Amino acid sequence: MPTTSNVAGQTGITLNNKIPVQIYKMESKTIENMIAAGAHFGYSKTKRHPSAKKYVFGTKNNADIIDLEQTEKMMAQALKFIKTLGEEKKVILFVSTKPESKKLIELAAKSVNMPFVENRWIGGTLTNFPQI
Known about the structure:
single chain, alpha+beta, 3-stranded antiparallel sheet, 3 helices
């Protein structure tokens, strides 16, 4: 029989004493979409950079669960920044080497006539560009 609890804005549901599922009170469609896309699943706790700890909601089975409320706020800030860059006619480099997003990055970049990288590149290409 499922058990439920309500802690700090989330409802926890445990089915048959197995993995608890956290469900955010979804006040926005953005968070709901991020959950549906699996954006809350982070890497193993052992692979996390120490500076990322403040963005982790919790850890389950040694895997981080990303705080989507913070993600939503930071995405809004990023969107505002990107809009500013677009208004100033600046160049935006679209980058993703993950197989799941390669095609999406290419299509998005081409749709706004911007450069993109969807394959592996030589380390330091961006950070050491003046020397290259």
